Amino acid sequence: MMIEIKNLRKEWKKGDVTLAAIDDINLTIKKGEIVTIIGPSGCGKTTLLKLIARLLTPTSGSVSIGGDSNKRRSVKKLSIVFQNPVLLPWRDVKDNVRLPNELNNAEQNNNVQHRINLVGLKGFENHYPAELSGGMQQRAAIARALILNPGLLLMDEPFGALDEINRNKLNLELLKIWKRLKSTIVFVTHSVSEAVFLSDRVVILSKRPAKIKEIADVNLPRPRELGIKESLEFQEYVKCIREKID
Ligand SMILES: Nc1ncnc2c1ncn2[C@@H]1O[C@H](COP(=O)(O)OP(=O)(O)O)[C@@H](O)[C@H]1O
Ligand SMILES: [Mg+2]
């Protein structure tokens, strides 16, 4: 398996006050799976993603990736994409995308162009972030996240700031990229429709402290096209999951 989360709990402490953000989460994610995490605002989704990335230490319980627990080093290729694209404003697209190569002394310049093409930014290599729309900036952030061929891609509401048309486009492209690169994806979202469209499984979290309320399997055929959203089956999944969110 790719990720194994056992009895995970995370508390935040401020003075005498303890606030539990994550409580008793058990979850196994298989290699190559797309799992989305959905739940009410403030329930602990970002906290959970950061625990998986080992950017935070659990209060108790464990997260192991690729069979090796508590050692981030063992996870050679993990990438994270945030809601905000976080591009360097003084670098153009090409130089933003190649940043991870530079930081790791990895010379893979043809990879840079390939990733730029993959996210649909061909022709914009020399544009600066300020010259791009929000959707294009997010595409650049995704290209950057893909540059080192991550086995595990963590995405925290990456398309949350985009309009529906752009979000749909990027959803579709993410599935194409996933098919090519075969990464495992853990994707946090507010949107039930986005969750159903992308996922093999949707993990529904409760209000804070986040516990798993239910895990819904999405058995829609792949490859998925946007037209699938019009189908009765798709809408049934959406309805069913929406009813379970607090
Ligand atoms: N660094 C932090 N210090 C203290 N409390 C935090 C910190 N980060 C998040 N929290 C709290 O943890 C809870 C869950 O936050 P978060 O994981 O960001 O929720 P979500 O991503 O589901 O909106 C919130 O109540 C938030 O205030
Ligand atoms: Mg969040």
Notes on the protein architecture:
With 246 residues, the chain is an alpha/beta fold. It has 2 domains: 147 residues, P-loop containing nucleotide triphosphate hydrolases (Rossmann fold); 72 residues, no CATH class. The chain is 32% helix and 26% strand. It has a 6-stranded mixed beta sheet, sandwiched between helices. A 4-stranded antiparallel beta sheet has the order 2-1-4-5, with helices on one face. Strand 1 and strand 2 form a beta hairpin. Helix 4 packs across helix 5. 35% of the residues are buried. Adenosine-5'-diphosphate (ADP) binds next to helix 1.
DSSP helical segment count: 8
The proportion of residues in beta strands is 25-35%
Ions and ligands: adenosine-5'-diphosphate, magnesium ion
The span between the termini is: 30 Å
Please name the fourth-level CATH homologous superfamily of the largest domain: P-loop containing nucleotide triphosphate hydrolases
Oligomer: single chain
Q: Give me the secondary-structure category.
A: alpha/beta
Secondary-structure element series: EEEHEEEHHHHEHEHEEH
Spatial shape = globular
Low-pLDDT runs = none
Q: How many DSSP E strands?
A: 10
CATH level-two architecture of the largest domain? 3-Layer(aba) Sandwich
Largest sheet properties = 6 strands, mixed
Which strand order do you get reading across the main beta sheet?
Answer: 6-7-8-3-9-10
Average pLDDT metric: 92
What is the CATH class name of the largest domain?
Alpha Beta
Total domain units: 2
Q: What is the CATH topology classification name of the largest domain?
A: Rossmann fold
Helix content: 25-40%
